[in-house]
Amino acid sequence: MKSLILLILGLLSFSIFAHSPIPNVILAIHGGTADTEEIPKNLEPEVIDGLFESLKAGYAVLKTKGSSLDAVEAAVKSLEDNPLFNAGKGAVFTSQGKNEMDASIMEGSTKKAGAVASVTQIKNPISAARAVMEKTRHVLLVGDGADQFAKAQGLKIVSPKYFYTDRRWKEWQKSKAKQNRSSQNSSPTAWNRHFSLGTVGSVALDIKNGLAAATSTGGLTDKMHGRVGDSPIIGAGTFADNETAAISCTGVGEYFIRYGIAREISSLIKYKQLNVVQAADTLIQNTLKPQNVEGGTIVLDPKGYLAFSYNAEGLPRGYVTQDGTAHLFVFDKEVVRLLK
Known about the structure:
- The structure is a single chain.
- Helix content is 35%, strand content 22%.
- It contains nine helices and 13 strands.
- Strand 5 (199-205) and strand 6 form a beta hairpin.
């Protein structure tokens, strides 16, 4: 009887997650895992519009034969400038009521990468991450050092007040109240859903078959001062390899770091010859979900096959195919728009 139950559960799991890779994709984005409390029905059209603007920015680069690196930076910058998303202007607040942001970028040919973490004054952290990659011998700069470096490179520096939004401030206050009410009955290491997980990211494939990936975030709502998640960690939240895939992740970063999720997905494609869907689902559905850890990923291979995998209620996301058609989602409903 037990064997029969396990077989049935296995078949159900297969039916839920067995789907084919999406073909002919040149650019994809995500806006982080979400539920209907974070994105109510009346907010969905604005989120769709924000995703569309991001795809437009990245596609404009690829349409003029630009690089995948330029495309993912442009797409993520658009999301960083949109207060609806947890990156840049829409970043969440730390336990001290401040905004600390992380970002990384990687290209798949030379495996060059750059990242910044715990920055507080850089308008577009993803551009600072790219500057680290191209202007230094390092991969990761943090805190004041990263802010100072960005200023020296002529990147846009803003007051920390720039990142404030009413929506995120109220979300932080609500999170604090929930935490205070539950503090006597929960472990200090427990993960509760009131932590906002919205990270943004992009993957792209250019005309030279070059892959790139980029990820940016404000982190977790009410996170400790100085906490750094997976988004600026190459191999955890971001990875790109022209032989396997470009990958951007979102979720509880501590687990993505521990399991090296992005690099592990690449390794499954490289060494076990899994396709992008199989590799993504192995980590998101088979590794993280059984531990009750929320997360998601977008994975694009060098032949233009794309996978989305997530174990949350929704993953705001979108992709563009070679013919310039944009496909957009907040939850399961698809919106199609033309970019030409």
